[in-house]
């Protein structure tokens, strides 16, 4: 007896911060936690220097984000998960429309064409879930933080080995969700996205940083820039 061929759904993979959202979900979240006095105001001083260096074009955005991440990891310990969820919801509500038109329209188009939408972010999964739920994503991966007694964060991360490698996440999702990389699409903005962009048939480098741009030019990948009210492709 002939077996029916297994239908595998096409997949589109998106980085989130700086690719769909015009800002960082982690920064929004940390700012909200500090404003709500769930994290000490002193925490702002820990990334202030790197923030100013980036604003003055004397430092890299990556350095600023790493400083924010270190601050978040240091101060999240002891915060109650329920309070964390409420701040995440409020942060998304305040910034949900702060998105790029190119990627927003691309998501809608791919969804209409039957693609499985996969989001991968280095921001906390809770806030990424809230941000992505109205965009039509089928699966979301983000950083997961351990919760201990009394539903309070321990300050430790869970499954670091998985979230640190986006290519591994894609392989896992393809296997678990019965997906195919044929006609697949990937969208990223930094060199951290190269591992999964190399896996897809149509890699798109959206507002890429210098390292990703250099790699994209060498590989002949599509480079899209959205600036003010203009969207254009760099040849």
Write a concise synopsis of the structure shown.
The protein has 235 residues and is of the alpha/beta class. It is 43% helix and 24% strand.
Order of helices and strands: EHHHHHEHEEHHEHEHEE
Label the structural class.
alpha/beta
Overall mean pLDDT score?
A: 94
What is the CATH topology of the domain at 9-23 and 98-234? Rossmann fold
Q: Which radius of gyration do the C-alpha atoms yield?
A: 19 Å
Element layout with pairings:
Layout: E1 9-15, H1 25-35, H2 45-55, H3 61-75, H4 81-95, H5 101-112, E2 116-124, H6 125-132, E3 139-147, E4 153-158, H7 160-163, H8 166-176, E5 179-188, H9 194-197, E6 202-206, H10 210-219, E7 222-227, E8 230-234
Parallel strand pairs: 1-2, 1-5, 2-3, 5-6, 6-7
Antiparallel strand pairs: 3-4, 7-8
What tags apply to this protein structure?
alpha/beta; 8 strands; Rossmann fold; single chain; 24% strand; 235 residues; 8-stranded mixed β-sheet
Structure, explained:
This protein is of the alpha/beta class. The protein has a domain at about 10-25 and about 100-235: 3-Layer(aba) Sandwich (Rossmann fold), CATH 3.40.50.1000. Helix content is about 45%, strand content about 25%. It has helices at about 25-35, 45-55, 60-75, 80-95, 100-110, 125-130, 160-165, 165-175, 195, 210-220; strands at about 10-15, 115-125, 140-145, 155-160, 180-190, 200-205, 220-225, 230-235. Strands 4-3-2-1-5-6-7-8 form an 8-stranded mixed β-sheet, with helices on both faces. α10 links the parallel β6 (about 200-205) and β7. α1 packs across α4, α2 runs antiparallel to α3 (about 60-75) and α4 (about 80-95) packs parallel to α6. The longest helix has 15 residues, at about 60-75. The N and C termini lie far apart (about 50 Å).
């Amino acid at each position: 007896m002939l077996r029916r061929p297994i239908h595998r759904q096409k997949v589109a993979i998106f980085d989130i911060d700086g690719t769909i959202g015009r800002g960082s979900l982690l920064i929004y979240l940390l700012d909200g936690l500090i404003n709500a006095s769930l994290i000490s105001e002193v925490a702002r001083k820990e990334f202030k220097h790197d923030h100013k260096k980036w604003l003055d074009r004397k430092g890299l955005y990556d350095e600023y984000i790493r400083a924010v991440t270190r601050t978040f990891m240091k101060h999240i310990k002891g915060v109650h998960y329920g309070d964390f969820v409420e701040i995440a919801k409020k942060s998304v509500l305040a910034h949900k429309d702060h998105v790029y038109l190119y990627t927003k329209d691309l998501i809608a188009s791919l969804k209409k064409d039957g693609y499985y939408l996969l989001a991968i972010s280095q921001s906390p999964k809770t806030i990424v879930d809230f941000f992505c739920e109205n965009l039509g994503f089928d699966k979301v991966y983000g950083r997961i933080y351990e919760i201990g007694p009394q539903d309070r964060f321990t300050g430790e991360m869970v499954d670091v080995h998985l979230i640190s490698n986006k290519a591994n996440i894609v392989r896992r999702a393809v296997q678990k969700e019965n997906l195919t990389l044929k006609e697949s699409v990937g969208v990223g903005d930094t060199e951290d996205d190269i591992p999964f962009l190399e896996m897809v048939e149509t890699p798109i480098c959206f507002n890429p940083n210098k390292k990703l741009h250099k790699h994209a030019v060498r590989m002949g990948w599509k480079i899209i820039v959205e600036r003010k009210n203009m969207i254009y492709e760099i040849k």
